[in-house]
Amino acid sequence: MSSVLYDTPGPRAKRRNVLFSVVFFVLLLLLLWWVWQTMDDKNQLTWALWKPFTESQAWTTYLLPGLADTLKAAALAMVIALPLGGLFGIARLSDHRWVRVPAGAVVEFFRSIPVLLLMLFANEFYARYTGVSTEERPLYAVVTGLVLYNASVLAEIVRAGILSLPKGQSEAAMAVGLRKGQTMTNVLLPQAVTAMLPAIVSQLVVIVKDTALGGVMIGFTELLNTRSTLAAVYANVIPSFIVVAVIYIVLNFILTSFAGWLEKRLRRSKRSTGVVLGKEDVEELNAAEIRGSFGTGAGGGI
Amino acid sequence: MFDFLSDYDDPSIWGAFWMTVKLTALSGVGSLVWGTLLAAMRVSPVPLMRGFGTAYVNIVRNIPLTVIILFTSLGLADIFGMTMGASDFKVQGFRLAVLGLVAYTAAFVCEAIRSGINTVPLGQAEAARAIGLSFSQTLSLIILPQAFRSVIGPLANVLIALTKNTTVAAAIGVAEAAFLMKEMIENEAQTLLIGAVFAFGFVVLTLPTGLILGWLSKRLAVKR
User: Fold this and answer.
1) Which of A101, A155, B5, B43 has the smallest count of CB within 10 Å of its CB?
2) Which stretch is the leader sequence (chain A) (predicted)?
């Protein structure tokens, strides 16, 4: 195997690689052994702490309802943020200055603020100015925070998707006499949506991860929040953290793999213009496209 | 109208944002070091190291930062007794938050650096070897200078995201901006004003970072 950094190894390099492998393997084993020992020292490996996860009660009372709330908040946020993001993404591409500039300002503003701040603010806002009930409020606040942030991220994705289409598409539409609105809805958007799908699915991972904030800071009963209730009942902090982390990893891994599969599949099929945007492409495109952007990536992906 | 701002002194509004800056700076340096090491492993010729790097990145990226930060406090500190050499509860929380942020952000730094190395065309290395440069010369004179330049943009994104992510430290009681905002917004009447003040604070922190580093990355970009 050759890469830009090294050649296909010869006999000496092969011997060196084997040596490195062995040393690294030993170090890794030592680390694992140390972790195991520490856990054993603090009695975290006793079966009593792990047993609840083999029984249905821990799952049906705590983990599954928590997971359901996580998914509910994520799905709601995505469904509401998508049209909003589309609207702002298109508004940023408008020919009229008075549409383009305010839309750009709103998007950049919400992208540069932490989601947690938006959630805290929404929570207090609902408490003071609306009649949302106390039980419903955390969900409302979490979804509001997620929508405001992710709509602006999705706006960038939509913009990148439309910009990535070949210029000939809009020129041809103009040549056959379509209006600007028609060009957008009949020619550009349908192709851009296909191109954006993988990036949108990747954004779902970010949304799922951010729901956890609501659980800790404003008492939304999602997975991380129900974990603490569970740990209080069974007194198993470490095992519950590990189980919850694994649930998140599996969930997000499925979403990431789905996005990757989608990207590959869309790249192969030749039904659209062949442009497909992954996560990195969106950031690159927006960085390359200077007009109307303040040059900040605002760290969309984390 | 703004007098409520001076009613708080533990932390004060300046103290809170200073804490945010400190968290960002320390975790930024830490994750740059650990992320570079991870990236080095991911592109190394040793399969085991590559596997470790890949596994670390894929696992850590898929766990919410909140879970990691909370674990450092409830797990590492409370159960395993890792006090991070701090006698004071506040200092301990700060150090744990930095630890969590470094562990999480390093995965993203690693990916940014790796993508930078991948942007260097294979022909560059082949040409360097063809004119007789040694491995270390190829790396230090040809590949890394090009890789670093193309990495500034993505790393700036990571830094901005890190600045915003430091707010998660409020979950373990580190007295930074989000922590103070939560306290203020629950106790004071000026909900909108408080929201605006803290939002403004973060815009001030993140916008210049993006502008300066964005300008730098454009200026230093390798024209191909």
Assistant:
1) A101
2) none
Q: Which residue of B has its CA nearest to A117?
A: B178
Residue B147's pLDDT is what? Answer: 85
Contact of A181 with A95, CB cutoff 8 Å: no
Given a contact cutoff of 8 angstroms between Cβ atoms, the answer to whether B182 and B151 are in contact is no
Query: Cis before residue B11, ω within 30 degrees of 0?
Result: yes
Q: How far is A57 from chain B (nearest CA, A)?
A: 23
* Banded pLDDT at A1 (limits 50, 70, 90): very low
Of B74, B79, B186, the CB nearest to A42: B79
Class of domain B3-220: mainly alpha
Residue type, B14: W
Stretch A121-138: mean pLDDT: 91
Cβ distance A299 to B70 less than 8 Å, yes or no, reads no
Residue of B nearest to A296 (CA): B210
ipTM higher than the 0.95 cut: no
Joined tokens for residue A122: 């929404």
Of A150, A113, A141, the residue nearest B196 (C-alpha): A113
Pick A212's closest partner by Cβ from B64, B108, B191: B64
Give the mean model confidence (pLDDT) for residues A263-267. Answer: 84
Q: B191–A209: do the CB atoms touch at under 8 Å?
A: no
Amino acid sitting at position A37: Q
Reported confidence tier of residue A296, pLDDT bands at 50, 70, 90: very low
**Cβ pair B67:A224 closer than 8 A:** yes
pLDDT by residue (tens digit) across B55-102?
A: 999 999 999 999 999 999 999 988 888 888 877 888 999 999 999 999
**Quick one: CA dihedral B142, B143, B146, B149, positive or negative?**
negative
How many residues in total does chain A contain?
A: 302
Structure letter (DSSP) for residue B51: H
What's the pTM value of the predicted model, to 2 decimals?
0.90
Question: Which residues in chain A have Cβ-Cβ distances shorter than 8 Å to B53?
Answer: none
